């Protein structure tokens, strides 16, 4: 990848992100993204970590998610507005920036609505690789909105899951999910209730959008040996699981200070014991203890995963050329003469 001058920054638009994913292939892209996420979890202590910075309203939330590994800095702007769906808009949208820590110059500006969906699914599958039973073959997905197909594709790519049981309050959402996945080799059962969906499931993914505390999964729905991938609870006051399920589960999280505010474990005492996923990946903590334990990945999404996603996309740009040069940074020939650059621009306009 080359740029004409220091003031141009590679920009990956929605159109180019779609072309990039399709050029690489959906499953290979998810595998590569998952590998990058896992690699960054392995060097977790290198990262600057903090809770995301939220701006809550009655309608939703807008957040900034920053992190750095000391050489690169990344942040994501993201929102979560469940009411948007009724207005024909996305519930979640986002964009992100990757920058050089040593100069402060941005290296990448990218859409992150599609990329967030991909990285969320890839992270779920990475966690399940360490926490689900090795013989897991059936996944229930409760909540068949915008994230559901990405989850299915990531679990297929990383764990070989091909048997799906789908449920959503809106039957049209389930039909949409079934139709979108029909060409990818899945065996799909559309279910009429959440209870029906979890019958025979080895992995249960909950991924609903409603910004309230709900019991999507009641205690009797989580049997021995199941792995629960709880994705939908991601803000204060929004949960999906009955509290009793948490008390029967081995709980794994990304970054405890954030998850205790936003995840399922906000229902528990502030000092309730949980295990950090990076420790399991690094072999510093035990994951699944036996085939009868319930494991729960209380996923809220963390900035390092977005950093990994931006880093992965940036690594693909040179070979694919799927970006535009964006004139984003004012960079005069003489660094101290920013005003002079403006005056010279005026002179050039008059001369033209």
Considering the chains and any ligands shown, give keywords for the structure.
352 residues; ornithine cyclodeaminase, domain 1; 7-stranded mixed sheet; 11 helices; 8-stranded parallel sheet; alpha/beta; 2 domains; Rossmann fold
Structural features, described:
This protein is an alpha/beta fold and 352 residues long. It has two domains: 8-114 and 304-351, 2-Layer Sandwich (ornithine cyclodeaminase, domain 1), CATH 3.30.1780; 133-301, Rossmann fold, CATH 3.40.50.720. Helices cover 35% and strands 24% of the residues. It has eleven helices and 17 strands. The protein has helices at residues 14-24, 26-42, 113-131, 148-159, 171-181, 194-198, 243-247, 256-262, 277-281, 303-320, 338-351, and strands spanning 8-12, 53-56, 61-68, 72-80, 94-100, 106-111, 138-142, 163-167, 187-190, 203-206, 213-217, 227-230, 239-241, 249-253, 275-276, 294-298, 324-327. The strands form three sheets. An eight-stranded parallel β-sheet has the order 9-8-7-10-12-16-14-15. Helix 1 (14-24) crosses helix 2 (26-42). The longest helix is centred in the middle third of the chain and has 19 residues, at 113-131. It is globular and about 75 Å long. The two termini are 32 Å apart. The mean pLDDT is 94.
Superfamily (CATH H level) name of the largest domain? NAD(P)-binding Rossmann-like Domain
CATH names the topology of the largest domain as Rossmann fold
Succession of helices and strands: EHHEEEEEHEHEHEHEEEEHEHEHEHEH
Q: Which stretches of 5+ consecutive residues score pLDDT under 50?
A: none
Protein name: Ornithine cyclodeaminase
EC number: 4.3.1.12
GO molecular function, one term: ornithine cyclodeaminase activity
Family: Belongs to the ornithine cyclodeaminase/mu-crystallin family.
């Amino acid at each position: 990848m080359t740029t004409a001058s220091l003031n141009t920054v590679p920009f990956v638009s929605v159109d180019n992100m779609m072309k990039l994913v399709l050029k690489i292939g959906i499953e290979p892209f998810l595998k590569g993204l998952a590998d990058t996420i896992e690699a960054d979890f392995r060097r977790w202590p290198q990262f600057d970590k903090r809770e995301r910075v939220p701006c809550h309203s009655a309608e939703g939330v807008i957040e900034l998610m920053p992190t750095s590994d000391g050489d690169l800095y990344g942040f994501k702007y993201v929102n979560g507005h469940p009411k948007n769906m009724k207005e024909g808009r996305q519930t979640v949208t986002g964009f992100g920036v990757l920058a050089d820590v040593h100069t402060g110059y941005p290296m990448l500006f990218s859409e992150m609505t599609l990329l967030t969906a991909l990285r969320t699914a890839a992270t779920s599958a990475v966690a399940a690789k360490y926490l689900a039973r090795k013989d897991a073959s059936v996944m229930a997905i409760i909540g068949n909105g915008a994230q559901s197909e990405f989850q299915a594709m990531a679990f297929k790519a990383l764990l070989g899951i091909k048997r799906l049981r789908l449920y959503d309050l809106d039957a049209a959402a389930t039909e949409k999910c079934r139709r979108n996945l029909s060409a990818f080799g899945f065996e799909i059962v559309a279910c009429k209730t959440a209870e029906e969906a979890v019958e025979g499931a080895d992995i249960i993914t909950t991924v609903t959008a409603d910004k309230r505390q709900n019991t999507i999964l009641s205690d009797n729905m989580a049997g021995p040996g199941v792995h629960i991938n709880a994705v939908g609870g991601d803000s204060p006051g929004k949960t999906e699981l009955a509290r009793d399920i948490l008390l029967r589960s081995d709980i794994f999280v990304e970054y405890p200070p954030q998850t205790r505010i936003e995840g399922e474990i906000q229902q528990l005492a502030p000092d309730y014991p949980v295990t950090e996923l990076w420790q399991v990946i690094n072999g510093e903590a035990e994951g699944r203890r036996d085939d009868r334990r319930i494991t729960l990945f209380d996923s809220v999404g963390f900035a390092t995963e977005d950093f990994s996603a931006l880093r992965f996309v940036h690594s693909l740009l040179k070979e694919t050329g799927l970006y535009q040069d964006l004139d984003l940074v004012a960079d005069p020939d003489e660094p101290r003469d920013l005003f002079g650059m403006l005056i010279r621009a005026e002179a050039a306009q008059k001369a033209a």
